[in-house]
Input
Amino acid sequence: MSFTFVQADICPVDQASHMKDHVSKRILRWLDPGSVLLLAAIVVGLYNFIDWSRVASLDFSIVITYWRPLTTAAAMTISITATALILGLLIGVGLAVLLELPIGPLRYIINIYIELWRNTPLIVQLFWVHFGLPALTGVSTTAYQSGLLALTLQSSAYLADIARAGIQAVPKGQWDAIKALSLPGRTKWLEVILPQALKVMIPPLGNLAVSFLNGSALLGVLNVGELMTVSAKISDYTSKPVEIMTVVALLYLTINLITTHFTNRLERFTQRRP
Amino acid sequence: MISFNTDEIVRNLPELWIGLQYTLVLVFVSLAVGTVIGLAACLGRLLGRGLLSTLCTGYTTIFRGIPETVLMFWLYYCAPLLGGVRPSSMAAALVAMSLYLGAMLSEVFRGGILAVPKGQTEAARSLGIPEVWVWINVILPQAFRIVIPPLIGVAALAVKVSGIASTIGVTELVYQANIIAGQSYRYFELFTAVGLFYFMILFPMSMLAKRYERKLAMRTR
Output
């Protein structure tokens, strides 16, 4: 109680100066020497390397002129990534379940499949699928089909690996309980193991979604028609690459941040309910 | 299946070897620069307050969220329009990869340092050990061990990302294969060969990372 009296005794002028002191202290604490140094370096770098008259002449209205192709292309990027990830999830979980079966040769083949697709760059896979595979199968695919196929193949391999880790993270007691109750295979996988494994898989799945969204920009080399293709075409056509590419980069960044946000929320949501 | 022409690969091995050299230069230089950037960003984020840590967090978020393809394209085609510097394709690819890998590595380092059990640092501090020695003798040795498998992962990522440099015309492995295949239309043979080259580099790395991870898991259990 006495404490409040003391507070009330300070006259408004004193309080104001006290507040000012506090604010300046906070600003000082916010600007420690390291950050000041870094800021100075950035400012000097920007001043020396950037031609400000060029920056002033940038015309971002070009983005508004071309908003329709850009948004449809962004939608295509999202849809192709999402399709590849969903198909990859189905195939990957299937492969991970098959890996748990005690069939030696099958396990061997699946492991080779996973390692082959995980340990080659996406760009090589894209060229291989688009130009090489038709020589093998005789069926030539459109750029969209081969892009989706390459993304799906790679994501299925990554997701099989993630799903395997998820399945192995299911506590041993659960497996013992399944055996003790002699649950049939369907119930065992669909109602006991996989729901728990999927919960563990969410954080790596979010990372994978971001890396595949970034990877999907590579489909531009095949002219698939997603964001990278379209933005490269527009910047060629209008000869204003700076405006277009900066906005496209920010667009990718925004999509990635939203994805990360939602995976984080999903993770929290699944962990809240035991 | 049409005849698999191994002749085509053998005949072009010298060109592919040149490409592989460029790939290795890209990987090693960008990893070295990226490590420096990553360490600085990670320490700035962990030790700095306020603005410094905000800047470092912003850096990692931005460069992890922008596709490497877009980054390289931006640095090669757009940066010359803004400033007086006109980078060669190699320089643009190196800068883009260093920035990207720096962001990845700063996350890896941060993860490693934060993964050191809290009891360790608390014990060291309560014994009155100076902060510098807490870092040198307690935190960093333990963090280093935790960080090795993801570090190998980032190195593998560098190898994979280096292929993207072909889109701006660096004459590395994918670019060479593309040029050669464009002449004879032997895409299947050449890209199988290139894929195998990459596989031979990347597979041992991922095996090593996996083995080390298993070892670590056993030690901590």
Summary: Chain B touches chain A through 54 residues (CB under 8 Å). The domain at 29-218 of chain B is CATH 1.10.3720.10 (MetI-like fold). Chain B has one domain: 29-218. The first helix of chain B runs from residue 6 to 11.
